């Protein structure tokens, strides 16, 4: 007994791209297609199913109840298929991967999760270049990069984490802070590789003064306080000092989520600001032809989605 042929894989991938990006235009850009082509692929899927999967409006494409039920199953199926195919290809192909990553992301986010990747793919040799230098994708360079900032022309960029920035302290320090003018009660901590500048502290402090009935602290210079604060060699060192109650740290949400969850650090002020730049995954257009790179990319996206 014959069965009706299933929709092509590209049609299912287009459906997932629309969900993940929130719109047909953005999905088309991600897939390297025209918006018309993406719309046609969705029409194929809706025609095969016999029901509407999206409601379209000015704010983008929103899943219908039918689409919302279908989406998780398609995502899981595609993921399993990709993993099976790449694992098979990896058995007879490239088995190494070189990743460039910043020290903060490596120590505070990736390190605690990397064991899962190594356990899933023990035959892949993962090499890491940890530092602040721009990734070199040339011959003998890296395959993928987790980079804080935008991609250079010609590279694929996938956004990983949209962070917030806020100030943290130890619970002990937080307990003794006064209700007003608390920011001047402890040092502002810094580290040598710091992406945060005096301007970031000033941008955060503007919110404090906006919320302060007296318009802030007349004789307090946040820029001078940031410049004169203790300077540590690494982000990890600065965070350890913050845990020990030595001062305040202006941090990204993704880098301190574990500390906050475990109660080692507290958000000691209500003010929060969107991070000016986000962590992105960068790679050349042909990078995922290396099965090891493709497997790591898919694993990384799944780990990010698991906490969003």
Automatic annotation (TrEMBL):
PROSITE patterns: HTH_LYSR (PS50931)
GO BP: DNA-templated transcription
Keyword DNA-binding: yes
Keyword Transcription regulation included in the entry's annotation: yes
HTH lysR-type domain: residues covered: 7-64
Domain of life, source organism: Bacteria
GO MF terms, alphabetically ordered: DNA-binding transcription factor activity; sequence-specific DNA binding
InterPro entries: LysR-type_TF_proteobact-type, LysR_HTH_N, LysR_subst-bd, WH-like_DNA-bd_sf, WH_DNA-bd_sf
Keyword line: DNA-binding, Transcription, Transcription regulation
SUPFAM superfamilies, A to Z: Periplasmic binding protein-like II, Winged helix' DNA-binding domain
The family this protein is said to belong to: Belongs to the LysR transcriptional regulatory family.
Name of the protein in its database record: LysR family transcriptional regulator
Organism: Rhizobium jaguaris
């Amino acid at each position: 007994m014959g069965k009706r042929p299933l929709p092509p894989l590209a049609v299912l991938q287009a459906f997932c791209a629309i969900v993940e990006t929130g719109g047909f235009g953005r999905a088309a850009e991600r897939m390297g297609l025209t918006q018309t082509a993406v719309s046609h692929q969705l029409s194929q899927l809706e025609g095969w199913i016999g029901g509407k999967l999206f409601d379209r409006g000015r704010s983008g494409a929103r899943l219908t109840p039918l689409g919302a039920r279908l989406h998780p199953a398609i995502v899981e199926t595609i993921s399993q298929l990709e993993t099976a195919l790449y694992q098979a290809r990896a058995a007879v192909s490239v088995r190494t991967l070189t990743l460039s990553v910043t020290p903060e992301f490596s120590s505070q986010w990736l390190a605690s999760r990397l064991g899962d990747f190594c356990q899933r793919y023990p035959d892949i040799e993962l090499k890491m270049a940890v530092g602040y230098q721009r990734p070199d994708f040339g011959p003998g360079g890296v395959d993928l990069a987790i980079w804080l900032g935008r991609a250079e022309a010609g590279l694929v960029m996938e956004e990983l984490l949209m962070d917030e920035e806020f100030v943290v302290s130890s619970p002990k320090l937080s307990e003794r802070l006064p209700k007003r003018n608390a920011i001047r009660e402890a040092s502002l901590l810094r580290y040598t590789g710091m992406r945060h500048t005096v301007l970031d502290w000033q941008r955060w402090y503007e919110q404090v003064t906006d919320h302060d009935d007296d318009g802030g602290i007349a004789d307090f210079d946040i820029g001078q306080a940031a410049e004169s604060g203790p300077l540590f060699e690494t982000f990890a060192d600065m965070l350890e000092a913050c845990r020990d109650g030595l001062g305040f740290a202006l941090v990204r949400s993704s880098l301190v989520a574990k500390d906050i969850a475990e109660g080692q650090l507290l958000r000691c002020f209500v003010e929060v600001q969107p991070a000016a730049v986000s962590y992105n995954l960068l790679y050349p257009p042909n990078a995922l032809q290396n099965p090891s790179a493709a497997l790591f990319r898919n694993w990384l996206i799944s780990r990010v989605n698991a906490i969003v």
